[in-house]
Each structure stands twice: as structure tokens, then as C-alpha cells.
Amino acid sequence: MLGSAWYFFLAPSGIGGPVGVVWVSGTSMEPTMHTGDIAVVYRSDSYDVGDVVAFEIPGGGTVIHRITEADDGQYRFQGDNRDYTDPWRLGDDAIVGREIVTIPHAGTVSAFLGRPTSLALLAMALTLLWWFRRQTPEPASHSGGREPARPSPWDPPIPAAAAPPRCHDDRTAGAGAWPPPR
């Protein structure tokens, strides 16, 4: 049941589901979308003038533009940064889906991380961070594993008589350790 719901509402279009992902390239949709953005689109039963949709063009390729005309299941499109409509008049079957969200720069990040050199640099940076973190000694804790609260610079000073005693350490016995050895 849950698998069926997932398929009908969230499955990628590559396996027949209603959700598609479009990597924006070019300037035709600026300022709405920019090169390197990723648009998530959702297939619908109908589309209206003003909807931003991704569609397959004759000869191959996917374009994401705004619907400017709709007439009996046939649509005309235009990029937000264009003074002219696209040359195609396409039907519902060519539309991949309506834009539901655009993730700025996600395609640029994805392209960067998709290069072997970038992945190697990222892995090296994370490894060094992990290694340096392991080399930093942990502060000794004398309160059963919990760190004592650090005073704020705005807290009043604690009088010496009320200050908690230092922990006794046999290695420093007789060398000013508190409490003194018995």
C-alpha cells in the first residue's frame, strides 16, 4: 500500500512516476531561474497559461519555459528572458511536468561534487578534519564524564572559600595538591 502511494505521488519520471528533475542551463528563464539551478517538476493532468513547465522538444532535449498560450491541449512556450515565443506547439504528452520548486545552485554543487578531483579533495579534507580532531586531547573530566559548567565572563567571581577543591591526584601528592595527603 505504502509502495503504491510512493509510486503514484513521488516516483521519478524515469520509472514512470510523476516527479522529474531538470537541470537549468542558459539564460532564457532569468531572473526566475539561473544556470546551475535544479527544478523539480510534477506531472499533472492539465496545465495553465503562466505555468512554468519542462517539456521534451522534437529532436531531443528538455526545455523549461513558461506556457504563454493554451488551446485545446496544445501549448506555446516562452522563456522569461525572451521577447519571442518558442517555435514549438506541443501537446500534453510532451510536457514532463510543472515546476513545483527550484533549488538555486544545486546543479552547480552536484556538478562540482561529480568530478573525481572534487570528490578526492572533499574526501581528503574530511579525513584531515577527522584526523586532527582525534589528535586533540580531550579535557580531563573529574565529574563522572560530565564537563562542569564554565562560568560566564559576566558572572561574579567565586570567593576562594566557596570554590570547589581541586581533585586529589596521587602523582602530585605533597606538591601542593588539594586536599593535602593524610
Structure description:
The chain has 182 residues and is of the alpha+beta class. The chain has a domain at 19-109: Umud Fragment, subunit A, CATH 2.10.109.10. It has three helices and seven strands, in the order αβββββββαα. It has helices at 2-10, 106-114, 116-135, and strands spanning 19-23, 38-42, 52-56, 62-71, 74-78, 90-91, 95-103. It has a seven-stranded antiparallel sheet with strand order 1-2-7-3-4-5-6, with no helix packed on it. Strand 4 and strand 5 form a beta hairpin. The longest helix is centred in the last third of the chain and has 20 residues, at 116-135. It is elongated. The termini are far apart. Residues 1-13 have low confidence and may be disordered.
What's the layout of helices and strands?
Blueprint: H1 2-10, E1 19-23, E2 38-42, E3 52-56, E4 62-71, E5 74-78, E6 90-91, E7 95-103, H2 106-114, H3 116-135
Antiparallel strand pairs: 1-2, 2-7, 3-4, 3-7, 4-5, 5-6
Give the overall shape.
elongated
CATH topology of the domain at 19-109: Umud Fragment, subunit A
Quote the beta fraction.
15-25%
Cα(first) to Cα(last) distance is: 73 Å
Main pleated sheet: 7 strands, antiparallel
Query: Could you state the order of secondary-structure elements as H and E?
Result: HEEEEEEEHH
Which parts are unreliable, with pLDDT below 50 for 5 consecutive residues or more? 1-13
The strands making up the biggest β-sheet line up spatially as 1-2-7-3-4-5-6
Instruction: Give the class-level CATH name of the domain at 19-109.
Output: Mainly Beta
- The class by helix and strand makeup works out as alpha+beta
